[in-house]
């Protein structure tokens, strides 16, 4: 006999677990019909921390328990035994409230590959309308862009002469330049477009959630952690919650879903909740003393991430953020400039310019991405260097290395085991080696001669393939794009189908970066917005819209 669900403290048609990038989109779209009762659950707090709104504030929101889960990876063999901080947003807006704000869709072939894997409806031509649906591009409507949507896209409000010269160098060495990274082919260098509005961060919460918070059919609960899904037979009917900032003193409650539970907690937390609910491989659950409810061996597997290798070049005759940030006068000037016009360095995204290139002739399309920054430091959040410098961060867009996310214990307050296995695949190792060499070619271009770039990290003594691989392991760090841990597909390791429904269960979908079967060729925030837009349409058009009567 099936176990009965407990008495509900809260009832809704749709329960959305995670008010992050995807959750805010779903909350808006599903609550547009006043007949739909929507409950949005967020483990973090409100997004009123001042540094969230100021673009440069990402330096103070990452690795800050006010806004970040503060996860860490395991020690990585490919990174010479180092463990990495692994920021994940813990506030309304989720990662879109602490990320680099770069508007990037990826390449058309990314989505065509998803389609070719058997995921019907996920090709470039099918997803492009969903990118455009919520877009509000500063240049207005065009073949590839749209205006009037919620997701604001603007050009950046400052530029640096050294970056203009890097673009000239890219053209000189054959990488080229582009005017639009988001047309399906992103080869070349250009200034990044950003999700900002008048010099302030524009998060998914700003775009989709805050304008509708007063809808009577929408309830938003902050400081509320989902700890376990409730199954009756193979139907997910609700979720057990802990309400309160302090989990040790939190109130236990239960919310029931008349239609669906939508898991939007991200590529780390979504598989954690599934595992805690007994939905995973039996061997993993047995090791955690968790009773299996449903066999899905792919939950938490297939972790992919973009590893960035951060080369630094000292410069002559250049103005960079290093000098400005290391003087009281410079800091005061930056603050006044931002207060007066919402421009200047405080309006900066972490990277102002990017570039897409082929690491070698073996690739038919761009397989690496540059993030160019007129600054340098040992690692994110630490003081900038005292000398003028530029950082050329380069990442492998389509890594072959695969990792996993597992619960470390069934204790809900414990962090996960995150093992990315960076640089474990031979092809990833070769791409890292070739990328470092290509970056040297770029900075040796005649266009940059007046700045006399001097390689500071890893240094010119690093020459052989083995030395470069060790350097990549030393300089490599996440660029915060974990995906794939609840992948979409039809094979035995797939977790969701092409409707994002969890395979073998009713009433449960996953709608976040974890469903990507393979990582997109670029920054991942806007692809998650697209995934949520497409999911909302699928949900609203599904038979489950004919929901039972309830009080």
Q: N-to-C terminal Cα separation, in Å?
A: 26 Å
Share of β-strand residues: 15-25%
- Give the strand tally: 25
CATH superfamily of the domain at 10-48 and 205-303 and 483-545: FAD/NAD(P)-binding domain
Structural class: alpha/beta
**Major β-sheet profile:** 7 strands, mixed
> Looking at CATH, which topology of the domain at 10-48 and 205-303 and 483-545 would you report?
FAD/NAD(P)-binding domain
What is the rounded Rg?
A: 23 Å
CATH class of the domain at 10-48 and 205-303 and 483-545: Alpha Beta
CATH architecture of the domain at 10-48 and 205-303 and 483-545, please? 3-Layer(bba) Sandwich
Helical residue percent? 10-25%
Low-confidence stretches: none
* Overall mean pLDDT: 94
Principal-axes geometry comes out as globular
What does this structure look like?
The structure is a single chain. The protein is of the alpha/beta class. The chain has a domain at 10-48 and 205-303 and 483-545: FAD/NAD(P)-binding domain. Helix content is 25%, strand content 21%. The protein is built from 14 helices and 25 strands. It has helices at 21-31, 50-53, 58-61, 108-116, 124-133, 161-172, 204-209, 266-276, 282-287, 321-325, 328-341, 426-443, 465-475, 525-540; strands spanning 10-17, 38-41, 71-72, 85-86, 135-137, 151-155, 188-191, 193-194, 196-197, 200-201, 218-221, 224-232, 235-243, 251-263, 279-280, 294-295, 307-314, 353-357, 368-373, 389-396, 404-406, 417-419, 454-457, 476-478, 508-510. Strands 1, 2, 11, 12, 13, 14 and 25 form a 7-stranded mixed beta sheet that branches. Strands 7, 17, 18, 19, 20, 23 and 24 form a 7-stranded antiparallel beta sheet that branches. A 3-stranded mixed beta sheet has the order 5-6-8. Strand 9 (196-197) and strand 10 (200-201) form a beta hairpin.
